[in-house]
Amino acid sequence: MESQLWIILLIGAGTYMFRAVSLVLGSRMQWSERTKEWLSYVSPAVLGALLGPLLLLNDGQWVPIRDNTMLLAAIPTILVAWWTRRLLLTVVSGIGFYTIVYYLM
Amino acid sequence: MSRQDKIALALKEVLPIVLAYFPLSITFGVLAAASGVPWYVSVFSSVWIYSGGAQFMLISMIETATAPVTIIATILLVNMRHVLYGATMGPYLAHWREPLKWLAALGLTDESFVVTSNRAAAGERLTPSYYLTFALAAYGSWISGTIVGAGIGGIVPSEAATVLSFALPALFLALLFGGERTLPHLLAACTGAALATLAGLLNLGGIGLIVGGIIGATAGQMLGRKRIKPIRS
Known about the structure:
The structure holds 2 protein chains of 2 kinds. Chain A is mostly helical. Chain A is 79% helix and 4% strand.
């Protein structure tokens, strides 16, 4: 419990510093194009790194494709995200697809 | 435009975000409760972190008993994207008083950034009364949803909680495929996914996220530069 509070404190402080320092500095100077460019690739890279194990593994073990409820639900979810670009709609339909796959398998 | 008009405009434009945040943070509260996180810890994380992706990741990593150092390093790496948001928004707030800039930074979430930066890029002057109303409404929605979710978490059946757990991958998919989707960005995502999955198979845990994030971003940038060069020269 105590460690959970510490983790939250540090993550919150770090996230706020990312937001605040870059904003305050950004209001005074221009960032190098190269840095901005690299930063724009960090999000997709980390999101991919989060999704890979989440969708393909279970407790560090490979899940065969036809038994993989997560991956099967992810495919239509990706299509919804791609076409609508809407956060809430994607999350709600994703949960819907997962419910269907979960009860069918 | 009077101050009242600016506040009214901000409330009108923040409404879709308020509507999206509320159920999402209820889901967060419910999942946190189902994972045994006490209600005040989940509410505290919404007040103090205020970053949906980070908070969902935090629950799943607490559940799998990931080492605290790995949790903090991974989530901060994911949230490094906020540096990009701050750097982009900064110039638009150059005429603001200093303390107000520090206050504005609090509300710089993925979705708020997308809406307000589009507005500023279209030539609109961002005033404190517009921007801060916008930020506070979204923040309030996120916190109140968490309180509701944490409150009803105990009475939600475990099957519903299992199904709701797909909210996290769905959120990541929404952020990934709703954002920039050029080939270099997709390469960054695939490289990250491949390295993190490989690390998972080798039982290296959270290191895969950090390595995947850094190498994936670098790979994406390299491909991006390669593709731009012939056009420039």
